[in-house]
Design a protein that fits this description.
Elements (H helix, E strand, L loop, with lengths): L1 H8 L31 H4 L2 H28 L2 H14 L2 H11 L14 H29 L7 H28 L3 H28 L5 H28 L5 H12 L6 E10 L2 E9 L6 H18 L3 E8 L5 H6 L9 E4 L3 E10 L2 E11 L4 E7 L5 E8 L2 E6 L10 E9 L2 E9 L8
Parallel strand pairs: 2-3
Antiparallel strand pairs: 1-2, 4-5, 5-6, 6-9, 7-8, 7-10, 8-9, 10-11
Length: 444
């Protein structure tokens, strides 16, 4: 019996463990809550979730409309405040509809990310509407305390309060049931929030009973208490909406990105994580480092594996950008500031045109050929004449980029030498002799 009661209030075992991907992340999913003006992405990204929000809106809108009729007939400020509260719950669905209508439009040259930000603007409008309504309700309650007036149709006021309770309870049962079907912790949390709102409606009934028993100030006092609850909603919702407008995200999202990286072998360190919402879609930028001995193929494999983990851990993720950094961070880049490579060699021939040079990379110095024009299936090799024998450096495409060819190892010191660049393509071969001389003051 006690388990059923605890589950009804939202503290039972059925309300826990909706992580979405089967990992134990502690509080990673605890940030899902009820916030007016912001639609949780775990709801918005599923058809069933959108359906639940739509019908929740219909039920609460009908509930608020019935209460509003009694407000005009009775003059009860407690019922007015509760009606405003229920309207605030109903209009939560508005930004979702606006966003979904506009997000369908393809990105343009002016709006390269699409129109997802419209959802944030709609959220601000909703918060302002609820704030204005709370001020009106608060003013009416204070005025009724100073200038008491009789309330008409007390029975109807009590019935309207019960209607508010029944409407919120129906929405609670509906959201919780659908939330469990689609495994959405956010929708379940919304359901239990609606159940709590039902008790706010029951407070209207208590106010009507108090007036009936000869305490006329019970109605405005209840109205003030409900108004205080609405102001708390405004404060919570405005923080959430403004945070998203300023590119803020829930800390749990950053933790989830770090956790996703832990599932990928080959990542040496996660240097930085950036994320932001564009509407109800998440965009992430992650900077990682890999071991210095990793090949271009290894790097591509690690990058793709990380993206797969990110999309698996974050259902609302729309785009993930993975950047590669030196394993030693900024210090490693500074350590190469002593770079003293010779002047580049300009390559001009039938098979290719470009620049051959010695460059600093996160993995160390490399011989690089940057190509502006080249023949198909171009292969390049540098042969350096050394006193102890020729040094051969094969230049391979970097990350399958055939316009940038690099050696996998650094050219030996010193960087003053006679050499040949051998280009081959389509059965043809060209040998381009060149000489590199270190700048003055860097001779060994």
């Amino acid at each position: 019996m006690m388990d059923k009661i605890r589950d009804w209030f939202g503290f039972g075992p059925m309300t826990q463990g909706f992580g979405g991907h089967g990992h134990d992340h502690g509080d990673g999913d605890g940030g899902h809550g009820h916030t007016h003006g912001v639609i949780d992405p775990t709801i918005a990204t599923t058809t069933r979730g959108i359906w639940a929000i739509k019908w929740s809106f219909v039920v609460l809108a009908v509930t608020a409309a019935l209460q509003l009729v009694v407000v005009f007939l009775s003059g009860s400020v407690a019922l007015l405040a509760d009606t405003i509260h229920n309207i605030g719950d109903a209009v939560t669905a508005v930004p979702l509809w606006i966003a979904f209508m506009l997000v369908r439009r393809k990105p343009s040259k002016a709006f390269t990310y699409g129109l997802g930000r419209v959802e944030d603007l709609a959220g601000i409008v909703i918060v302002l509407i609820i704030l204005f309504s709370a001020i009106v309700a608060g003013y009416e309650a204070i005025d009724r305390l100073i200038n008491p007036r009789p309330i008409a149709f007390l029975g109807w006021v009590a019935i309207a309060g019960l209607i508010g309770f029944i409407g919120n309870e129906a929405v609670a049962v509906f959201r919780i049931r659908v939330g469990r079907e689609i495994n959405s912790a956010a929708l379940i949390a919304d359901g239990y929030h609606a159940r709590t709102d039902g008790f706010t409606s029951l407070a209207v009934v208590l106010g009507a009973i108090g007036v009936w028993l000869g305490f006329p100030l019970a109605d405005p006092i209840i109205g003030l208490l409900i108004t205080a609850a609405i102001f708390a909603i405004v404060w919570q919702s405005s923080k959430a909406v403004l945070t998203r407008m300023l590119d803020g995200v829930e800390p749990a999202i950053v933790d989830e990105i770090h956790h996703a990286a832990e599932h990928v072998s080959g990542i040496e360190h996660v240097h930085s994580v950036q994320a932001r919402w564009i509407g109800h879609r998440l965009h992430a930028d992650v900077a990682i480092s890999v071991p210095e001995m990793a090949t271009a193929k290894d790097v591509l494999g690690v990058t793709e594996a990380l993206k797969e983990e990110l999309f698996a851990h974050l259902p609302a993720l729309a785009e993930a950008n993975v950047r590669l950094m030196s394993s030693a961070g900024p210090a490693a880049e500074i350590s190469h500031a002593h770079h003293h490579a010779p002047e580049p060699f300009k390559v001009v021939c039938d098979l290719a045109e470009g620049t051959l040079e010695i460059v600093d990379t996160p993995a160390g110095e490399r011989m690089r050929l940057t190509i502006d024009r080249h023949a198909d299936d171009l292969a390049a090799t540098v042969i350096i004449d050394r006193p102890e024998g020729p040094e051969t450096l094969r230049l391979d495409p970097v990350a399958d980029n055939h316009h940038r060819l690099e050696s996998t190892v650094a050219p030996a010191e010193p960087h003053e030498f006679q050499a040949r660049l051998i280009l081959a393509a389509n059965g043809r071969e060209q040998v381009l002799p060149f000489k590199m001389v270190e700048p003055e003051g860097h001779h060994h």
